[in-house]
Amino acid sequence: TPEVERGVSIVSAISAVREALVRRQREVAESARIVMVERDIGTVVLTDAELKVFLTADVEERATRRHRELRDLGDDIGYAEVLSSLNKRDEMDRDRAASPLRPAADARMVNTDGLTVDEVANCVIKLAERA
Predict the structure, then answer these.
(1) Is the torsion defined by CA of 53, 59, 61, 64 positive or negative?
(2) What is the CA 70 to chain-centroid distance, rounded?
(3) C-alpha triplet 99, 79, 113: angle, nearest 5°
(4) Coil, strand, or helix at residue 46?
């Protein structure tokens, strides 16, 4: 929900919260082969992962996707508000001291601009098959 989206970066900037989540994520990863999605999996949580994929898209593309998703859920939030929210979250995530938003040095970069979900999934699958 938009309310959760607004709070994610604020809560995740709290060191104790991040430490607890990282511990739990590592426990989960030790139990089985898994795909994890989060902004710091490759740089903090699972630095030795076999494959690290860093998905990118222009903020306008992401705002368009998110706006469409929220509209489909019945939310009448405006595009400008979605775009502003994404810009603020990105800035907070890039500038935070603990686990800032950045790709791992060995991450495979995938720009998703103009791609469908299926196209992105197929790209990641191909990368995994080669890993």
Answers:
(1) positive
(2) 17
(3) 60
(4) coil
**The length of the chain, given as a count of residues:** 131
- As to burial, measured by CB atoms within 10 angstroms (0-12 exposed, 13-18 middle, 19+ buried), residue 12 is buried
pTM for this prediction: 0.77
Could you report the per-residue pLDDT of 37-72, keeping only the tens digit for each?
887 899 989 999 999 999 999 999 999 999 999 999
Mean pLDDT of the chain: 89
Which residues make Cβ contacts (< 8 Å) with residue 88, sequence separation at least 6?
9
Q: Which of 126, 93, 123 is nearest to 10 (CA)?
A: 93
Amino acid at 76: D
Contact indicator for 83, 64 with CB cutoff of 8 Å:
no
* Rounded Cα gap, residues 128 and 103, in angstroms: 17
Strand partners, 55: 110
Contact 54, 36 (CB under 8 A): no
Q: Which residues pair with 108 in a beta bridge?
A: 53
Q: Is residue 110 a contact partner of residue 122, using CB atoms and an 8 Å limit?
A: no
